[in-house]
Amino acid sequence: MTINFKEEVLKHKEDLLSDLFELLKVRSILGTDVTEETPVGSGPKEALELFLSFGERDGYATKLVDNIAGHIEIGKGDDLFGILGHVDVVPVTESEWITPPFSPTIRDGKIYARGVLDDKGPTLAAYYAVKLLDKLGVDWKKRIRVIIGSDEETAFRCVKAYFAKEEQPSIGFTPDAMFPLIYGEKAHANFRYSLKFKENNKQSAYTLTKLNAGLVKNMVPSEAIAIVEGDNSKLAELFNEYVASKNITGKIENNKVTVYGKAAHGSTPHLGENAATKLAEFLLTLDLDTNGHNYVKFIVDNIANDPFGEKLALKYNDDEMGDATYNYGIFSYESDKALVETDSRYPAKFNLIEKLEKLEIENVEVEVYSNKEAHYVPKDDELVTTLWQAYKNHTGDEINEPRVIGGGTYARCLKKGVAFGVLLPGREDTMHQANEYMFIDDLLLSVAIFAESIYNLCCK
Ligand SMILES: [Zn+2]
Questions:
Q1: How close is the Cα of 421 to the center of ligand 1, in Å?
Q2: What's this model's pTM, rounded to 2 decimal places?
Q3: Domains, the chain, with CATH or none
Q4: Residues 351-380: pLDDT tens digits?
């Protein structure tokens, strides 16, 4: 059967937009009105039920699971193909919106509303792709479930509850990211370096009494503060000289030294400038007490300016998943406790944990306290090649390739799944922002790409 996907999509345009507007009007933010009927509040539940009602109206089997997730099932066969999306949205600051976030509005070919891009628009586009094929009377070789969660933005309780009771699809995708597609997510470990405190056995000009930087492990700290006891005026002189010679920014007030860097996400630490390691570099030039000195020396010798872990021989790279990265997100030094919290994203084939267990660093111990395995589908797998080909057929984009990221996507919840769409390369990413929008043309294009993908994977 030959299908002109773009033409077929246009036949459903009015219905799609009307359903989408209804869905976007639901204020599906995590709520405080939590009951057994509404486990994450009444907003997410209302959006979930509304989505399922579209499936019922169109003649398909639907199921609500634990009031927090659900599915619409179409097609036939033993094998199950899954499409996973979500209808909950992140909170809004109304004053920052040009038109109200839950009153969808069209301006210049774009729909403005909270959730239009993340993830109500994409999830509905995927549903319409399956519906479009079914209404054409395709010969299904698989069952397809459009699985809808209502707690993706907070704690993934929707998918946990859903997959505790329901069948795991053999393959699938989640339209909750960008095109072309993300076939891999690196493994993710959190660990900490702790200083072994020693007897202070020397006379020093300065004592480090406090150092603090960073609030979360998964961000590069953009500000670091140290409290240093000693001669304040001499300290100011040394600091100002240092700042002038090193091209860094900072300030000093009495015994409080502040250094600034540049924030970046923890999965891409090389894009930021770590304020704490810069501060440590200055502190190492001072005549410091034993423990203060050991702490800043550890930082400078082993982790400063080293997002790829070369100094500790933790560098790793492969063609499949790229580089292992190390973000030093939280620094804390007090009189009896000093640590550096680290967030690493690393390829599946790298045995980071074993390497860390064998690390020997003077005055410092390493403790790994969380580790999540990598999630990926091989780049040459039929799932990846088929989805990518459908994308290329409809966009003509031969430049952007499927990729691996350090962050996590909803695809992690599928045993064998990738993130596929819908933000197009070059488009502004307004997910989680004020005035979130999506081009109507992009929405329709997504339906066509999804329909061709699903047709090739489920009807042949
Ligand atoms: Zn999302």
A1: 11
A2: 0.83
A3: 5-185+375-458 (3.40.630.10), 187-372 (3.30.70.360)
A4: 999 999 999 999 999 999 999 999 999 999
